Amino acid sequence: MTKNTKILVVDDDKGHRITLLTLLADWGYDVEGVDDGAPAIVLCRKQAFDLVLMDVRMAEVDGIEALKEIRGFNPAIPIIIMTAFSDVDDAVTAIKAGAYDYLTKPLDFDELKLMLERAMDHVTLREENHALRHALSATFDSGDVIGQSSAMRYVLDMVAAIAPSEATVLITGESGTGKELIAKMIHRNSNRRDGPFVAINCAALSESLLESELFGHEKGAFTGAEKYREGRFSTAHSGTLFLDEIGEMPLPMQAKLLRAIQEREIQRVGGDTVIHVDVRILAATNRDLRKEVEAGRFRQDLYYRLNVVSVTLPPLREREEDIPLLATFFLRKFAEKNGKNIRGFTPAAMNMLVRYFWPGNVRELENTVERATVLLMGAYVSERELPPGLLQEMNGSGGNANNFSNMTLEEIERVIVRDALESAGGNKSEAARRLGITRKTLAAKMRE
Ligand SMILES: Nc1ncnc2c1ncn2[C@@H]1O[C@H](COP(=O)(O)OP(=O)(O)O)[C@@H](O)[C@H]1O
Ligand SMILES: [Mg+2]
After folding, report:
1. Residue 3: which pLDDT band, with cuts at 50, 70 and 90?
2. Ligand 1 atom nearest residue 146's Cα
3. How far is CA 22 from each of CA 15, 16, 25, 28, 32, rounded to the nearest angstrom?
4. Residue 409: per-residue pLDDT
């Protein structure tokens, strides 16, 4: 179960590269070497390296370019740049582009050794937080909406442009992609931000209940209507009404909704007074409404009314650059909630998260991270805290990680403690450090 730190050496000078590889292997690291930035990028996409040691001047893709590219899909990996003493400018550029640190050539091997040790202690949330802040400052009041991928930036720019208008917006995308979050963001950045944001899930209610939820009802309007009730349209007055899962709305209700939107007037169930309402409508669906129209399940006129502007959220698997940012954001949130001192993900775990298919999108990622936070005893989330399904998806064969799903928490803890001791060669202080607990706590757990 012992896993060595894996380092990628990128240097076009063959002699220098081989010297480094020999030295690092001697120090107990797993090493691999390539002679240009281009193969380095390819390798980092395929394998989970813990650290990259990279030359700057190379023939095809130089070190800075490769650094930017690699950090694009893995912002957590520490990359150390090697520059000639005369090229300090390169070092500055590299640091600005996110390099962990730099070394000048000819390398001082003691300095290299120290830097590697320090870097491995530093694969922390601090690094990832930096990327996170950067991602957030790139957008306007995006609140808790995270996205740095070009697909999400497009969405966020679009939202920034349409939020201040009064336009009805149709938000589409698979379940769990963040449609409700985007609806709230539109409201928060609109001129109605001081008014209410009212959401209603059209799939959750029967047809008659949906009508009285939307429009309200008079006392005695139907059996069980003991009191007068205000509808969501009235509650949302001067604000925004979010009609979630609009594709599930029954046809007769669609006609009533269309009238309400066109006339900006509603009638309570069992009443005949006409009430004027001032609301902006946002709607969301995970269905293809055009197809629903063709199939006769959705009114075409309502579709055109709703689809004045449309925003489409890409599935998570089409924005893998955002996965590390989202995972780190959720990890911080749940670590805080559970009072745990968690420092981050191991590169291998992060790699798994980035490659998984995520049929349940961001919601599934959020749940996965929450589960891992609860399971974790140590400082870093590893493959072992991730659901076995993720592994199977990764390598088809079922993977080699422990299957925790049929184990009690106590059993899981025992496995983890034993693993840590084993991988620390029986050294208790080291094992405690790896687990992120004190020696004393470890001793207690060993007694158990
Ligand atoms: N870009 C994002 N940044 C941060 N959290 C997100 C993002 N997208 C989705 N989430 C979170 O994922 C969960 C599901 O999002 P939600 O808006 O309910 O999805 P949908 O309405 O499309 O099913 C929520 O907890 C939401 O806060
Ligand atoms: Mg939703």
Report:
1. low
2. 3
3. 11, 10, 5, 10, 10
4. 65
Residue 368 located in a structural domain? yes
* Same domain membership, residue 330 and residue 372: yes
The dihedral through the CA atoms of 382, 65, 128, 171 has a sign that is: negative
Q: Are residues 172 and 201 in the same domain?
A: yes
- Among the ranges 84-93, 176-185, 435-444, which has the highest mean pLDDT value? 176-185
Residue 284 in tokens: 């969301």
Which pLDDT tens digit goes with each residue over 36-46? 999 999 999 88
Same-domain check for residues 332 and 281: no
Position 427, amino acid: N
How many whole angstroms from 186 Cα to the centroid of ligand 1?
Answer: 14
What single DSSP character describes residue 318? G
In a domain, 141, yes or no: no
Sheet of 309-312, strands arranged across: 197-201, 240-244, 280-285, 169-172, 309-312
**Which token pair is 350?**
């992060």
Q: For the chain, how many structural domains are there in total?
A: 3
Residues 288 and 406 in one domain: no
| Cβ contact 32:24 at 8 Å | no
Task: Tell me 315's DSSP state.
Answer: P
Ligand 1 and 145: CB distance under 6 A: yes
139 within some domain: no
| Domain region containing 191 | 150-313
pLDDT for 253: 94
State residue 381 phi and psi, 5-degree precision: -75, 125
Cα 330 to ligand 1 centre (Å): 11
Residue 144 lies inside a defined structural domain of this protein: no
